[in-house]
Automatic annotation (TrEMBL):
It is found in: Cytoplasm. Its main location: cytoplasm. Pathway: Carbohydrate degradation; glycolysis; D-glyceraldehyde 3-phosphate and glycerone phosphate from D-glucose: step 2/4; Carbohydrate biosynthesis; gluconeogenesis. GO terms for molecular function: carbohydrate derivative binding; glucose-6-phosphate isomerase activity; monosaccharide binding. This is Glucose-6-phosphate isomerase. The active site is at E347 (proton donor), H378, K509. GO terms for biological process: gluconeogenesis; glucose 6-phosphate metabolic process; glycolytic process. It comes from Brevundimonas alba. One of its GO terms (cellular component) is cytosol. The gene is pgi. Transmembrane segments: none annotated.
């Protein structure tokens, strides 16, 4: 039996024992619990003390991380080794936010100089558009940007913009991802082609949805601009610049194949955001992520925020069979965080085979879902409080949600007090005895109290993690996203899977092309399954 297998067996055994002990009991018997399970990291505070593990369970999780060589795999990631083994690629998104004097290598090839050159070009373009030095084909300054992408080319930049955009932005930035023409129609509504910049983001510049939307945008521009003038309005962000130029982009900004889509927001994929927010703001985002990289690579495992968050998830999923997790950001600016994490985590770790191609011997990534607080409280929180299935929760809490609130703590208190209360309620619950006593105190008779008490009982003992941010600053947002990136990587190491390929995305795309071909032919092809054929016939009417 390998050291990894032994460590997993120990984790499962301790988890089974911990399952019989309520979380509140762990606080009663371990006075140092908050100190041990609270971590400061790059300006964030992560509290894991409300997780289900005991002190023994916590140590078993640390031992598991060591047996899986998390530190060695981390060094391989930052060392530019082929950690994406199925595609033979390095994975170097940390290089994109590194300091100017960094010396990252991808499979031995120096890349930091190229990163710095791309970053300088992005900064110059952002500055020129912001100042009006860079104009459209009719010499008018740009007042709007339409960012076209999908998946990682959309979710990351959209999250940054929602989190950091001013209330009255100088540039109106709009995003299009869905191939449904209405998405593009809504994005273009009210815009002037002569003052609109279209940024098309596609790593290969072959993504079906992105190119379909890009064609719509180009046709819209062509109604008002000549081909010669239109090229100034089309920017391609891609690893295939020759394809972008052939399509019609007058300018391209590149990134390399060692930048995975869901890890790419630090690159020129966020060019439109850097323009709209201003380069200084984008640089601060990079600085926050860089600080989290420093924490991840230097902190001991016992105080390493990404490692501990990953271990808490492994403890819940593998140790306690909890196959879902909810994320509730208590900040309107982070409302896209759950969607971003769905791609980051489920596309990375939704795998059924290990790195060597053999079937996994553990559970892997759970279902991730969420909504911003307090909206989620009036939707799915009912189930996570009183449903029979235990769903671990994650609360992202911002002390000051806007600059206007910095000197008015009471302005934010109703928001973050709800977050703290939800985490507390999930843990402590309410017994049937207490529910009955409350009903009697409120004037119910004994029979009524007996009838209603079970409905007002909360099981409690439901785990959560809370992440505190002092303010929704660029640095804090950058650190938060990098925290989740590294957490996802650590989970992949422990589960022995490749977190950096996404073959599960491909099959449906291939079949969609085949179905489209049948539609163009006017009938289902021979051998198509009866259900799909019938649905196609009905839709072609």
């Amino acid at each position: 039996m390998t050291a990894r297998s032994q460590a997993f067996d120990m984790l499962r055994a301790v988890a089974r024992k911990d399952e019989g002990t309520r979380i509140v009991h762990h606080f009663a018997t371990d006075r140092r619990r908050v100190e041990r399970m609270g971590v400061e990291a790059a300006g964030l505070y992560v509290d894991l003390s409300k997780q289900s593990w005991s002190a023994e369970g916590f140590e078993a999780a640390i031992d598991l991380a060591r047996s899986c060589d998390v530190e060695g795999r981390r060094d391989a990631l930052f060392g530019g080794e082929a950690v994406n083994n199925t595609e033979g690629r390095a994975v170097l998104h940390p290089a994109l936010r590194a300091a100017e004097d960094a010396e990252f290598r991808a499979l031995g090839e120096p890349v930091s100089k190229e990163v710095a050159e791309t970053r300088r070009a992005m900064a110059a373009f952002a500055t020129d558009v912001g100042s009006g030095a860079e104009t459209g084909g009719t010499k008018q300054p740009f007042t709007a940007i339409v960012h076209i992408g999908i998946g990682g080319s959309d979710l990351g930049p959209r999250l940054l913009w929602d989190a950091l955009k001013p209330l009255e932005p100088t540039i109106d930035l709009r995003f299009v991802a869905n191939i449904d023409p209405r998405d593009m129609g809504e994005a273009l509504a009210g815009l002037d082609p002569e003052t609109t910049l279209v940024v098309v983001v596609s790593k290969t510049f072959t993504t079906q949805e992105t190119l379909a939307n890009a064609d719509l945008a180009k046709a819209w521009l062509a109604e008002s601009l000549s081909p010669r003038r239109m090229v100034r309005h089309l920017v391609g962000v891609t690893a295939a610049p020759e394809k972008a130029e052939a399509w019609g982009c007058g300018r391209t900004s590149g990134f390399r194949d060692w930048v995975g889509g869901r890890y790419s927001l630090w690159s020129s994929v966020s060019l439109s955001v850097a323009v709209a927010l201003g380069w200084d703001v984008f640089e601060r985002v990079l600085a926050g992520a860089r600080a989290m990289d420093e924490h991840f690579t230097t902190a001991d495992l016992e105080k390493n925020a990404p490692v501990l968050m990953a271990l808490a998830q492994v403890f819940n999923v593998e140790g306690l069979g909890r196959g879902a997790r909810t994320v509730a950001p208590y900040a309107h600016g982070l409302r896209r965080l759950p969607a971003f994490l769905q791609q980051l985590e489920m596309e990375s770790n939704g795998k059924r085979v290990k790195r060597d191609g053999t079937p996994v011997d553990t559970a892997t990534g759970p279902i991730v879902f969420g909504e911003p607080g307090t909206n989620g409280q009036h939707a799915f929180f009912q189930q996570i409080h009183q449903g029979p299935t235990v769903v671990p929760a994650e609360f992202v809490v911002v002390g000051h949600t806007s600059d206007a609130a910095l000197d008015a703590r009471e302005g934010d208190a109703p928001l973050w007090s709800n977050a703290l209360a939800q985490a507390q309620a999930l843990m402590v619950g309410k017994t049937e005895k207490d529910a009955r006593a409350e009903l009697l105190a409120a004037g119910a008779d004994a029979a009524e109290a007996d009838r209603l008490a079970p409905h007002k009982t909360f099981p409690g003992d439901r785990p959560s993690t809370t992440i505190l941010m002092d303010a929704l600053s660029p640095e804090a947002v950058g650190a938060l996203i990098a925290l989740y990136e590294h957490k996802t990587f650590v989970e992949g190491v422990i589960w022995d899977i490749n977190s950096f390929d996404q073959w599960g995305v491909e099959l449906g795309k291939v079949l969609a092309k085949a179905i489209l071909k049948d539609v163009q032919a006017g009938e289902p092809s021979a051998g198509l399954d009866p259900s799909t054929a019938e649905l196609m016939k009905r839709l072609m009417v």
